[in-house]
Each structure stands twice: as C-alpha cells, then as structure tokens.
Amino acid sequence: MAVQRRTIRSQRLLNAAILVLVMLTLSAVPRSRHADAQSTTPIYKDPAAPIPNRVADLLARMTLEEKIGQMTQPDRGSLSAEADIASYYLGSILSGGGSAPTPNTPTAWADMYDRYQGIALSTRLGIPIIYGIDAVHGHNNVYGATIFPHNIGLGATRNPALIQQVGRATAEEVAGTGIDWTFAPCLCVARNERWGRTYESYGEDPEIARAMTTIVTGLQGTSLSQPGSILATAKHWVGDGGTTGGDDQGNTQISEAELRRLHIPPYIDAIQKGVGSVMISYSSWNGQKLHGHKYLITDVLKGELGFSGFVVSDWAGIDQLPGDYPSDVRTAINAGIDMVMVPHNYQLFTGTLRNEVNAGTVPLSRIDDAVRRILTKKFELGLFERPYTDRSYTATIGSAAHRAIARDAVRQSLVLLKNTNNILPLSKNARIFVAGKNADDIGNQSGGWTIAWQGSSGNITPGTTILQGIRNTVAPGTTVTYNRTGRGAAGHDVAVVVIGEKPYAEGQGDQPSYLGLDQDDKNTLNTVKRSGVPMVVVMVSGRPQIVSSEIASWRGFIAAWLPGTEGQGVADVLFGDYRPTGKLPHSWPRAETQIPINIGDATYDPLFPYGFGLTYPSLQTYMPLKSSK
Ligand code: GLC
C-alpha cells in the first residue's frame, strides 16, 4: 500500500507541476487574435493614450508628403477633384466667404463635410481633416443661421458673459454642419474708422477686446473635446487695426512699445483662455509683412507668449511676401506659419515646400513642429474618435433659443446718443412713420460676411427687419406707415428714419476721405424734415459716420451698428421694453479732419466720447427678455 500511496502522491505532484508549466506558458502568449491585434494597434489610434504620445507616434509614421499635406489648406471651391483630399493628404479645407455647397442648407453643409472627411479617413494613416470657416457673427455663410451683431456692436454691450453665450450658440450652429474651426474672434483694435474692417473690431481701446475674449471659451467650451466645441482663431496677428490711414492690409507704423500697448494685449488673454489657432495679418509692421515676421510669430507669439496652438496664414497671404513663390513659402514657414491657407494651387504649394525641405532651406524640424501643433489640436478636438458631423446640433441652426440670444445682444448693443425732451421711448399707441434704406432690409442690417463675403442688400436670409420689429411691437390697431424715401410723414406723431451704410467687407469698405451720409440718406432725412414730424434716427453702420451737419434736427439718435437678423431688438429699445445700456466702443468724430480720433489723444473733442451712452429716465419700465436658457 505504501508503495501505491507513494505512486499516487508523486503522480499528483507531477500533475501539479504540469499545470504550473501550462499556466506559465499560456501567460506568455497573446490570448487571442484580438489580443494579438491589440498589441499591434498604433498608439495614435488609442484614445486612452496621452495626446503627446499619440502625436509622437503618428508623426513618426508619416512621410514628408503626409506631413506637408497637413500644413496645406485649400478652399473647397479650388479642389480639382475631391479625391485630392486623399492624394495630397490634405489636412484642412476651408470655406472662404460665401463658398457654400448648393443648396445652401445645413444638411447640405453637413453632407459635404462628411463626404470630405470620409475621403481623408481613406488614406493610409486615416488622419481626419479640420474644416475652417469665417463664422464671425454667427454661422454667417449658412442660409437660415442666426446672425449676431458684428463685433463693434458686441463691444458696445461691454458684457463679456453675453459674448460667451454668443460664442457657444455660434459653436453649436457651426458644429451642426460638421465644421470644427472658425476664423474668429478678430481681436483687431481699430484705431482709424476709415478701415473697412472697423466693424470686425470690438473697439478702439484694447480693454474691450481683452474683455470679449470670453468668446473663445464660448466657442471652444471648457474643453475642445466636449460636444459642440469648435476651434477658435485669434486674428489677425498683429496690428491689423493700426495701419496708417486705416488702409486695409497696409502698414502699421508704430513703435514696439505702442504695438505692445495697443495690439498685443487681447492675444495674451486669448492665449490664457486656450485659443487653439492664430491667423497672421496681411498688414506690415514698419514695412515688414507679418506673414514673414519671424520675430513676431516665433519669438514673441510662440516663444514669449507661449502660444502652443497652430498658426495659419491668411487667404493667399504668403503670396504678398517679396520674392518669388519658393521664397514666399520658405520665408513664411521659417517665420513660424504652421498651416498655409493657399487657397487655390495646393498642388504648387505642396511641391514647392517639398523641394525647399529637400534642399535643406526649410528644416525638417520646422515641418515636424508645425505638424505636431496641428495634430495636437485634431486630437484635442476628438476628431480621430468623432470625425463626422454630430447631427444633434443641426437643429440648433437658426433656432428660437439662439435667436433670443441674438435679440438680447442687439438690445444691449444699441447706444442712445440723443434723446431731446425724452422723445424716446416711443408710445406703442403713437402714429409711427418709418423711413430709410436700412429700415426693412435684412442684408443691410447684417452687413458684410453674411451669406456672401461682401454681404448684400435685400432679403438674403430669414430674420426680422427693424420695420417688422416695430410692427410687432406697437399696440393692435396702431398705424405704422413705411416709405423708404420718407414721403408721407405728415400727420404722424413721430418718424423713425433708419439710415447708415450698405454691406461691405475688408478693403472694399475702406473710406480714405469721406465718412459722411450718402445722398440717399440725406434726401430721406430732408424729405422727413420738411414734414415737420419729430425725427428719431437709427444708424445701421459698421462704424461712426459724420453727422454733425444733420444731427441738430434729430430729436432722438441711436447707433445700432450691424445688428444682424434679430431686428426685434431695435424695436425693444425704441419702445422701452429694454432701456438702452450700450456704451460707445469708438470715439464719434465731429469732422473728417479729426480722424483718427481715439480716447487718450492729446487733443480730444469728439461729437460723442468713447464710452458715452444715454439711457431712459428710470420712470420708464422695461421687461428683460426672458432668458434664452
Ligand atoms: C480673408 C480675411 C480673413 C478670413 C480669411 C478666410 O481675406 O482676411 O479674416 O478669415 O480671408 O476667409
């Protein structure tokens, strides 16, 4: 028996040993094909991996062509074939002003974006594109989108929290079309109202632009990866609003101390808020084009200010550099530009940059730095995990909730400049006469960058004109007569005359010598004046206009800037449903000869000073608009 027991024990020991051996062997080999696959999944495709690791892993896998493709941004309209998105490994596409799919509907935009994205993901490494657009006062290229007041009006609100709300609403509408990047906010500090882009500035003093960088948080959210967040762009680096004579794309001839005092501060705030991209200005600083300015781009913006996002050129901005095209490419990339808004001949750009790298005139380290910056933002946006449109946001485009925010912004942007004998607020039972070219025109009240690059007059997108707002507000049975040229005012209690500018954008809005009223407006004002009916003038314009010789006959005067689609907000102020709180973001010149005139000038005698704005006597009641929450 003893022998038998010894045999059984030794067998058990042998079995145990075999079991241990088998376990050890199994643990040393992958458990399944899946496990095998997991161990070979690239780090850059692992959402749990730290983003710097994902970037490094992906960069190491990329060819020079793939890297240069990431730095290349054509306009959608310049694609020779959509397949070029893959064959040139394009990292970004843009829609310049008015570059829209047909039909111009939110769904068509989202379908276009998803189609492009699918092509990008078909490449060897499957790097998603990032799509950029000028959503500068709402998703303004898209028919039916909410159009918010342009920046000059937002600056008049002096309300950073409201501007953050505007940013969030804009981001949701942009995200609803798939697009993940807006070329906004413009942080230019407009020092000369002759500049056609004055309305894209929050005001003449950097204090306003600094405060309004809350829009970056609105656009980007607390994290770029959160749904509905899009990448923001601080633009145009730097000094675009300070050119001599207000010449668009001109020369900013000031000391470095002035540049640092007036034009750089808003970028510091935007960088502190995590702005993901910066766009370079067409303008020059003391004769040197910003697109080739290594000191300001690499040493100051990226070095001293610690900007870790990526730098994008303006539209064909590198072409303005002195020298031939290879020199343009070499100078711009070596100056620190990471992505080039080509926007047309991307074939030439990619080939030229490849030649420069192969010739050693553009270091590969510069290419890697640019691509690293671009990829980092794509990973932070979650584009590798969620590359397609989040269609849950498409319904927010032009939504009542967003329009309510825009209406609130309009109300808060209006600046009451004159109110003789408290003619304002108007009675809702008064017999109202309305006149002027900007009273019943959505296009004019929206301004440039609306549907088309330059904007246009007429019924260009759904919204409420100022006249419609007035008609919506008066008591039932009240008379509201409208005549564009002012004929027929007699017999009414008050005439509301809505004058100002027609739409324009960029240099096409430069006014080198005349900022007075146009003849159309002068004729209308004279016609109404002859009727003897008291006048309230509402100015819809992208900047102050010279009104010194006309204003004496106006009982009331409101600056409404470029309110966008929600003209109801103007009527809210006219009838006292909102007491005006707006403050001038610009000094209002008395005469052409005073321009440029800015707060802090040694001699300062404007018609209305920077920061000026009246309100109604406290006896007037007003109803705060129900929160759009
Ligand atoms: C324009 C503008 C810039 C805009 C870009 C793309 O020329 O200067 O603000 O973002 O091109 O449309």
Description:
The protein has 629 residues and is of the alpha/beta class. The protein has three domains: 2-38; 132-396, Alpha-Beta Barrel (TIM Barrel), CATH 3.20.20.300; 400-594, Rossmann fold. Helix 7 (151-157) packs across helix 17. The chain has a six-stranded mixed β-sheet, with helices on both faces. The protein has 21 helices and 17 strands. 36% of the residues lie in helices and 10% in strands. The chain has helices spanning 2-27, 33-40, 51-61, 64-70, 84-87, 106-121, 151-157, 160-175, 206-211, 214-220, 256-263, 265-272, 294-304, 325-335, 346-358, 364-381, 400-413, 442-446, 466-473, 519-531, 568-574, and strands at 72-73, 92-95, 130-133, 181-182, 233-237, 251-252, 277-280, 284-285, 288-289, 310-312, 340-341, 415-419, 432-435, 480-482, 494-500, 535-540, 556-559. Strand 8 (284-285) and strand 9 (288-289) form a beta hairpin. Mean pLDDT is 94; it is low at 1-6, 25-38 and 620-629. The chain binds alpha-D-glucopyranose (GLC). Alpha-D-glucopyranose is lined by residues 96-97, 134, 183, 235, 314-315.
Largest sheet: 6 strands, mixed
What ligands can be seen in this structure? alpha-D-glucopyranose
**What is the rounded Rg?**
29 Å
**What number of domains?**
3
- The overall pLDDT, averaged over residues, is 94
CATH class of the largest domain: Alpha Beta
User: Which fold name is given in CATH as the topology of the largest domain?
Assistant: TIM Barrel
In whole angstroms, the N-to-C terminal distance is: 88 Å
Q: Count helical runs.
A: 21
Give the number of DSSP strands. 17
Question: Stretches where pLDDT falls below 50 for ≥5 residues?
Answer: 1-6, 25-38, 620-629
Strand content: 5-15%
Q: Share of helix among residues?
A: 25-40%
CATH superfamily of the largest domain: Glycoside hydrolase, family 3, N-terminal domain
Q: Label the structural class.
A: alpha/beta
The outline comes out as globular
